[in-house]
Each structure stands twice: as structure tokens, then as C-alpha cells.
Amino acid sequence: MAKNTHRRGATRKPVRKERQPMSWGKPDIAWGPLLRNTFIIMFVFVTALSVVWLQKEDTLPILHVTVDGELTHVDKASLVAAVKPYVTGSFINIDVAKLREAGESAPWVKQIQVKRSWPDTIHLVVEEQQAIAKWGQAGLVNSDGDLFYPPKSSFPKELTLLKGPESTNTLMVKRYAEIVEMFGPIGLELSSITMDNRRSWSLYIKGGMTVKLGRADSENRLKRFVALYTTQFSEYQDQINIVDMRYTNGLAINWKSGKQPEFNGTV
Predict the structure, then answer these.
(1) SS3 160
(2) If 150 and its partner were Cys, which of 26, 107, 119, 217 is the partner (CB 3.0–4.6 Å)?
(3) Domain 64-128, classified CATH 3.40.50.1970, yes or no
(4) What are the pLDDT digits (tens) for 187-214?
(5) How far is it, in rounded angstroms, from Cα 175 to Cα 160?
């Protein structure tokens, strides 16, 4: 009788391969980058087209010009008329610099800020000149020493007159402010200040008194005048014609005709 024989040894298990998904065909074109580039090109094209369209004068024309600011002397209608020839082009490409320049050339206008108000309005914010004194017979001067020349009929009344050589307006305004500060506490008001071509200063005070400071050391002479006026001769102000401070250690007084006090000589 035959015997069943069993062979011993390692049994090799079959390796099961992963089943690959069926490929239905791989596209030859990368659609993502292509779509992105196409979108960029279209965006640039539409933007350029829009810019050209917006810059056409008949696309967004300027229909209104408004004026604002704390104005006393500036006439709004006259200012609009002055800038109107430069209100050309569209809302986008209007020449703001030329418009501002035209507006600032108007009398009493110090500076203008130009603002756009969508879709058809230009808004002018005006800073008006503030005159602190007259300059010569034809001009005015502001606190920065800038000269401007509005019609004389618009000059404010009671302004102090400053007269000096050309290009000394800034210096004279600075000195004027210092003198006003010194004269305030002693009750003196200036009617005019002059500086001649030799840089010699003279002060003309309301009431008829003149103070001659000369050229050299005029600041210290002014301080000396204030001190002596306060302590020695303020009561004689209406009788004094000229106070001459061009002395090293004193001053000389010239009295108005018929108003000389009993004492005589140099103070």
C-alpha cells in the first residue's frame, strides 16, 4: 500500500500586484497657467482701454467749480472766472497745477488746494492773504514778509506803512513785529517805519512823534528809548516832535513848535 508522503519546506505566497487605474488619456496642455496668462492679458488690455476712455474730454467733463475758505476780500465769482479757462480736459486728466497757478494769481489769494469731487466737480479750498502792513504806496505784506498787490481800494484801513529798499521786506516785517511787541505795554502805536538805503531806521508814532534809531546798534537804541520813555518823558509825548537816539550815552529831543516844556537842553 502506497504511503502519502508530505514534503516539508517554505511555501512561497504569490505577490498580488496593485491594479493600476485605467488611463483614459493624459492631456497634452497645462490649462491652469494658460488660463492665468490669458486672464492677465485681458485685464491689462481692459485697463488700458479704460484709461484711454476716461481721459477723453467728453467722457467725464468738469461741470462745476466750487470755492470754499474763510474769505473777506476774495470774490468767489471772480476767482471762478480766473480759473475757468484752465478747467479743461476730463475729471481724470485736468491740469491741476495750471489751475492752481491761475487761482493764486488773483488778488488776495495766498494759496489754493484743488480737490476733485466725483464725478464732475472741482473744489477750490482758498487761503486768503492776511495783510499786517502796507508796503510802499502800492503793496501789502503778510506776516511771512511776502508782498502782494491787490487793488488799493481793497486795502484795510489803519495799517502801518513800511518803506525800505528792495528785497528788505522780510527783514522789515521781522523788525516791525518786534517793535509792536515792545510798544504795546507802553501804549505807543506805529504809523510807519522807514529804512533808507544806508539801512538807517526811523519810527513814526501815531500822535506825531518820530524816533530816529540810525543804522548802528539800532536794536539796543530801541531798548534804551523804551526804558527812558517809560521812566522820564512819556507825559510829554504830545509835545515831542523828534527823539534822536543816535547818541552813545543819551538822546536829544526836538519839541513841537510852541509846545516846549519849561526845561531846556538834552535829556
Answers:
(1) strand
(2) 107
(3) no
(4) 999 999 999 999 999 999 999 999 999 9
(5) 13
